[in-house]
Design a protein that fits this description.
Elements (H helix, E strand, L loop, with lengths): L1 E10 L2 E7 L1 H6 L5 E5 L7 E9 L4 E7 L3 H6 L7 E2 L1 E6 L10 E7 L2 H14 L3 E8 L8 H6 L3 E6 L6 E2 L2 H10 L6 E5 L2 H11 L6 E4 L15 E4 L2 E4 H4 L2 E3 L5 H26 L8
Parallel strand pairs: 8-9, 8-12, 9-10, 10-11, 12-13
Antiparallel strand pairs: 1-2, 1-6, 2-5, 3-4, 3-7, 4-5, 13-16, 14-15
Bound molecules: FE2/S2 (inorganic) cluster.
Length: 283
């Protein structure tokens, strides 16, 4: 059993849980994930680590209430326990001294990007971060990304905070200004990561994306996270979650994500009928 030592609501449909997991906190690296099972009969949820503290023995998970399982997880309160937390799993992000790294994050992707930006800065890179959300109320981890970066740009789609526009607009400008960029890390919604990869490809800018959002159970068994990378079949939970954005078969990935959306809607309808879907948030 793993105790939830603190809980915060970061945005309307986004919850932070800090969980006592000393063994995982001692070994965690940026880009890795854990599998959470709230109760004996709950589904397994793979969630990428947003933070950890080896001294206090805690890990931090930030997740969007996107389906039944995450809505249920958001109902766990401080002082309560979670049945299983397994990890750290997945291949860590390759952290080295590249020079200038541009970290582009959107929405809940910032939870994954934060430790990567921090590790890149600690490795001696100049980290230019571009973070965004649809609306100010959905923007998370702004202060944390500020500390993890040498330079921070903030956008909102509707102009309610920071610059009015998309994260890709700022990347366009940096490239247009001829800024030296050695690596781009893009983490967020699939259309955003695809768009960033399309922009960097003609400039030969190496671009890493995290496909963690496609994982189902994170065990390497269900096959739900299968992706095609440079013509080869890969499993996101075993071979990733990070991949070269220029090698991803994005059309296949979009189709795969759509396959699960109908089933998820049915599960949510059932959950709401059972308990009113008390965690709030979107679908
Ligand atoms: S998430 Fe099931 S095989 Fe990767």
């Amino acid at each position: 059993m793993y105790e939830v030592v603190s809980k915060k609501r970061l945005a309307d449909s986004v919850t932070l849980l800090e969980i006592q997991c000393p063994a995982i906190a001692a070994k965690a690296k940026a880009g890795q994930f854990v599998i959470v099972r709230q109760k004996e009969n709950s589904e397994r949820i793979p969630l990428t680590l947003s933070d950890w503290d080896a001294e206090s023995g805690t890990i931090t998970l930030i997740f969007q209430h996107a389906g039944r399982s995450t809505h249920e997880l958001a109902l766990v309160e401080e002082g309560e326990t979670i049945r299983d937390v397994v990890g750290p799993l997945g291949r860590p992000t390759e952290i080295e001294k590249y020079g200038t790294v541009v970290c582009v994050g959107g929405g809940i992707g910032l939870a994954v990007l934060r430790p990567i930006a921090r590790a890149m800065k600690e490795a001696g890179n100049t980290v230019i971060s571009i973070i965004g959300a649809r609306d100010k109320s959905l923007l998370i981890l702004k202060d944390e990304m500020h500390s993890a970066s040498s330079e921070l740009h903030v956008t909102t789609d509707n102009g309610s905070y920071g610059r009015h526009g998309l994260v890709s607009d700022v990347l366009d400008e940096l490239i247009g200004e001829g800024r030296a960029i050695d690596l781009v890390v893009a983490i967020g919604p699939v259309p955003m990561m695809r768009g960033i990869s399309d922009k960097t490809r003609p400039h030969g800018l190496k671009t890493v994306v995290s496909l963690d959002s496609i994982m189902i159970d994170g065990t390497g068994m269900c096959g739900g996270c299968r992706v095609t990378i440079g013509g080869e079949t890969k499993f996101t939970c075993v071979d990733g979650p990070d991949f070269d954005g220029h090698m991803v078969d994005w059309d296949e990935l979009v189709t795969r994500k759509k396959m699960y959306s109908e089933h998820e809607k049915e599960c949510m309808a059932l959950f709401r009928a059972e308990c009113g879907g008390g965690a709030g948030g979107d679908e």
